[in-house]
Amino acid sequence: MIDAMPLPAILLDREYRILFANRRYRERYGWSDGGPRKCYQVSHRNEVPCDLAGETCPIRDCLTNGRPTEVLHVHHTPRGEEHVRVEMWPLRAPGTDTITHFVELLHPSSFSGESDAEGVSHLVGKAPRFLHMMGLLERVAPSSTNVMLLGESGTGKEMVANALHQLSPRKDQPFVTVECTGLPESLFESELFGHVRGSFTGATSDKPGLVTAADGGTLFLDEVGEIPLPSQVKLLRLLETRRYRRLGDTEWQQSDFRLVSATNKHLREMVAEGLFREDLYYRLSVFEIDLPALRDRIEDLPLLVGNLLQRLGYAHLSVSKEALQALTGYRFPGNVRELRNIIERAALLTDSDRIEVSHLPQHCLEGAPGDGRHLQGAAGWRWGDGIRPLAEIEAEYLEDAARRHQGSRKELAATLGLSERALYRRLQLLRIRE
């Protein structure tokens, strides 16, 4: 039965062992009976299960909730790394609730190299929080459900919204962005709904609104928390009826669009403070997706840097190990947008084919003084009279912090300004070096 399945499929036991692989799995992963026997060895080239490597393990999820599960993973193949949707089905012993085996089906992801969707190639990464976001994006894209993108400034909300559009059945129709920041009430309504000639001073002709332009496609409201309260009522009516009137017009019009919103504000707090309508909030946030900050997916930095160099037209450049280590220790308050600016500046400063520490902005290199350690410009960390590698200093600092900290790992991660998974990965690397 597994061999007849049209997708790569394997049969697993509770010890992660591959008991059988169909022909498509063998072809795709170059696996044979004499190869590695455990799924994480084949797909991730790890020696520990996914949940022990900081990722989501579908077998563990099945054992926990007793139901089929699906996750987005990055798998190794003979052609390189690719995104796949892993569908895991638990099998029970006859007449019992005891799970004894699992069937794993591997679906090609919309974010894999095989995807023909435009605009998704810029979404790169394999950090757990990033993959979770991508999995949610892939699930909701085929529907017409209203989506709310939540994240700090610079995390790429418009890029994610565009990718959502490109993966939807509306991809051949318009993708229209409404910048909600700084628009007064009258101008917001004019931009969104349009106006007729003479409706206000300066309205010398009829103007269709962005809702009209988005008919059949996707309407993206960027920074939706900035919409004036009086305009929120009219937006709510639009979402409930799909009908609207241009400013100064008496006739109703209709528009069929898919709504995607984005904000870097805490809308629940704004609702509690009376700054945002509760009914509109629930209309907008049917399906919420959190975009991780760059500091919470810092392990994706090499991939992002490579992607940015290619997009900016500097594919011939590389980044030195020291420069990459320096960037890894920076918190990136401006997220990926700030990283883009840093890389573009560094690419213009270098006179060779490589970006060095000296090409990075000073604020990326400044460290806190103490214990005789301080940063001297772009030269690197100094301790006494000798210059030491940044990775070595970081390893000693993390080791010392882990030894002296009396609380939980979660508390330590918060103190260091890292996510718990990012701290876990760094401590794992430290143990490997030891």
Question: Your description of this structure?
Answer:
This protein has 434 residues and is of the alpha/beta class. It has 16 helices and 19 strands. The chain has helices at 23-29, 39-43, 58-65, 128-140, 157-166, 185-193, 210-213, 229-241, 267-272, 278-284, 301-311, 321-328, 335-349, 390-404, 409-416, 420-433, and strands at 9-13, 18-21, 69-77, 80-92, 99-108, 147-150, 175-179, 194-195, 207-208, 218-222, 243-244, 253-254, 258-263, 287-290, 318-319, 354-355, 373-375, 381-383, 386-387. A 5-stranded antiparallel sheet has the order 2-1-5-4-3. β4 (80-92) and β5 form a beta hairpin. α11 (301-311) crosses α13 and α15 (409-416) crosses α16 (420-433). The chain is globular, with a radius of gyration of 26 Å. The two termini are 47 Å apart. Residues 367-385 have low confidence and may be disordered.
Overview features:
434 residues; alpha/beta; 5-stranded antiparallel sheet; 5-stranded parallel sheet; 16 helices
Number of DSSP helices? 16
Mean pLDDT: 85
Category by helix and strand content:
alpha/beta
Let me know the number of strands. Answer: 19
User: How far apart, in Å, are the first and last alpha carbons?
Assistant: 47 Å
Helix content: 25-40%
Radius of gyration: 26 Å
Sheet bearing the most strands, described?
5 strands, antiparallel
Topology of this structure?
Elements (H helix, E strand, L loop, with lengths): L8 E5 L4 E4 L1 H7 L9 H5 L14 H8 L3 E9 L2 E13 L6 E10 L19 H13 L6 E4 L6 H10 L8 E5 L5 H9 E2 L11 E2 L1 H4 L4 E5 L6 H13 L1 E2 L8 E2 L3 E6 L3 H6 L5 H7 L2 E4 L10 H11 L6 E2 L1 H8 L6 H15 L4 E2 L17 E3 L5 E3 L2 E2 L2 H15 L4 H8 L3 H14 L1
Parallel strand pairs: 6-13, 6-14, 7-10, 10-13, 15-16
Antiparallel strand pairs: 1-2, 1-5, 3-4, 4-5, 8-9, 11-12, 17-18, 18-19
Helix pairs in contact: 11-13, 15-16
